[in-house]
TrEMBL record:
Its cofactor is pyridoxal 5'-phosphate. SUPFAM superfamilies: PLP-dependent transferases. Residues 29-348 form the Aminotransferase class I/classII large domain. The lineage of its organism: Bacteria, Pseudomonadati, Pseudomonadota, Gammaproteobacteria, Enterobacterales. The gene is hisC. InterPro entries: Aminotrans_II_pyridoxalP_BS, Aminotransferase_I/II_large, HisP_aminotrans, PyrdxlP-dep_Trfase, PyrdxlP-dep_Trfase_major, PyrdxlP-dep_Trfase_small. Homodimer. Keywords: Amino-acid biosynthesis, Aminotransferase, Histidine biosynthesis, Pyridoxal phosphate, Transferase. This is Histidinol-phosphate aminotransferase.
Length: 353
C-alpha cells in the first residue's frame, strides 16, 4: 500500500485552500491577500522562551475582551481566525453525520476545514446582490450544525443585511451555531454583531489581527461567543496555540495606544480606497467597481484574464475571482499605498481592452 493509499480518502481528494502565498507570483506590488501594505514595528518584551506559553495568554484575552466589550470568559485566542473555523467543526460536527453550511461566493476555508474532517459541506448560493437566500437556507438546515456567514463578505466586500442575520439566528435557534466571520469588521465597526451575543447563545463571532491591526504574519485570531461555547472549544484547542512572541506582540497591538494606531491605519486605508475607486471608474476596461466596506474592492473587467496577466507580468499581483459563483470577470484588489494604487491605475489605463 502506497503512502497516498494510506491517507484518508477525503484528504486524498481534497483541493487545498489556494492562499495568496501558495499561488505565488514574482511581483513587487502585492494586492492579492488583503494585508496592510507596510510593516508596523514591534519589539519583543518577553524573553522566557525556555518555558511553555499560557494556553490562553491572560493579557491578550483581557485586552481583547475590553476592546470587544465582552467578558474574558467569552474570548478564545487561536492561530488566526482560520483555527477558530476549524475548532468549531471539531467541537460541534460529527464526521459522516453532521454538515456545515455557507453561501458562495465567500471565503474558501470553510469548505476546506470541513472536508478535512469528513464533514459534509452544503452551499446555498447567495442572491444577485450577494445577500443571504433565507428561504433556500431554511430548506437546507436539516443536519446542519454550523452556518458560516462572512460579513463583510470576502471577496465581495459588502455587509450582510443585519435583519437577515437576525432571521437566520431565529431559524437556527436550538439547532445550529451561526458563525459571523468579522475578519474585516474594523473597516466598518458599526456592523459588528458582538452586541447580539447576550441574546443569541448560538452566535459565534470570528475576528483577527491580520487586517486592520497589520499583523497578518503574526497569525493571531479570536473567537467570541458564550461562555458555554468557549468552554467547549477549550477542550479541543492545542495545549499551546500561541507562542510567547505572538502573545507578546498581540498584547502590545491591543494596548490603548495600539488600538489608536489601528484606527489611524483604518482611516488611511479608507482614504486610499476612495482614491482608487474614483480613478478606476473612469478606466475603459473597468465594467463595474462594487461598493466595499473593507480594505479591498471587487472589480469586474472586460477581458479580466488578459488584465490579470498583464498586471501580473508588470509585477502587480491581484486576486482572480473568476472561478467563484457569480463573479465572472471579477478581480479583487487589496487597498495598498498611494504609490501602489497609482501603479494599478496607470497599468489599467494603458490596457487596450
Amino acid at each position: 500500500m502506497s503512502i497516498e493509499e494510506l491517507a484518508r480518502k477525503n484528504v486524498r481528494d481534497l483541493t487545498p485552500y489556494q492562499s495568496a502565498r501558495r499561488l505565488g507570483g514574482k511581483g513587487d506590488v502585492w494586492l492579492n491577500a488583503n494585508e496592510y501594505p507596510t510593516p508596523v514595528a514591534y519589539a519583543l518584551t518577553q524573553q522566557t522562551l525556555n518555558r511553555y506559553p499560557e494556553c490562553q495568554p491572560k493579557m491578550v484575552i483581557d485586552r481583547y475582551a475590553q476592546y470587544a466589550g465582552l467578558k474574558p470568559e467569552q474570548v478564545l485566542v487561536s492561530r488566526g481566525a482560520d483555527e477558530g473555523i476549524e475548532l468549531l467543526i471539531r467541537a460541534f460536527c460529527e464526521p459522516g453525520q453532521d454538515a456545515i453550511l455557507f453561501c458562495p461566493p465567500t471565503y474558501g476555508m470553510y469548505s476546506v476545514s470541513a472536508e478535512t474532517f469528513g464533514v459534509e459541506c452544503r452551499t446555498v448560493q447567495a442572491l444577485e446582490d450577494w445577500q443571504l437566500n433565507l428561504p433556500a437556507i431554511a430548506e437546507q438546515l436539516a443536519g446542519v450544525k454550523v452556518v458560516y456567514v462572512c460579513s463583510p463578505n470576502n471577496p465581495t466586500g459588502q455587509i450582510i443585511n443585519p435583519q437577515d442575520m437576525r432571521t437566520l439566528l431565529e431559524m437556527t435557534r436550538g439547532k445550529a451555531l451561526v458563525v459571523a466571520d468579522e475578519a474585516y469588521i474594523e473597516f466598518c465597526p458599526q456592523a459588528t454583531l458582538t452586541g447580539w451575543l447576550a441574546d443569541y447563545p448560538h452566535l459565534v463571532v470570528l475576528r483577527t489581527l491580520s487586517k486592520a491591526f497589520a499583523l497578518a504574519g503574526l497569525r493571531c485570531g479570536f473567537t467570541l461567543a458564550s461562555e458555554e461555547v468557549i468552554a467547549l472549544l477549550l477542550k479541543v484547542i492545542a495545549p499551546y496555540p500561541l507562542s510567547t512572541p505572538v502573545a507578546d506582540i498581540a498584547a502590545q497591538a491591543l494596548s490603548p495606544q495600539g488600538i489608536v494606531a489601528m484606527r489611524e491605519r483604518v482611516a488611511q486605508i479608507l482614504d486610499e480606497r476612495a482614491y482608487l475607486v474614483s480613478n478606476l471608474r473612469d478606466i475603459a476596461c473597468v465594467e463595474q467597481v462594487f461598493d466595499s466596506e473593507t480594505n479591498y474592492i471587487l472589480v469586474r473587467f472586460t477581458a479580466s484574464s488578459t488584465v490579470f496577466k498583464s498586471l501580473w507580468d508588470q509585477g502587480i499581483i491581484l486576486r482572480d475571482q473568476n472561478k467563484q459563483p457569480s463573479l465572472s470577470g471579477c478581480l479583487r484588489i487589496t487597498i495598498g499605498t498611494r504609490a501602489e494604487s497609482q501603479r494599478v491605475i496607470d497599468a489599467l489605463r494603458a490596457e487596450n481592452v
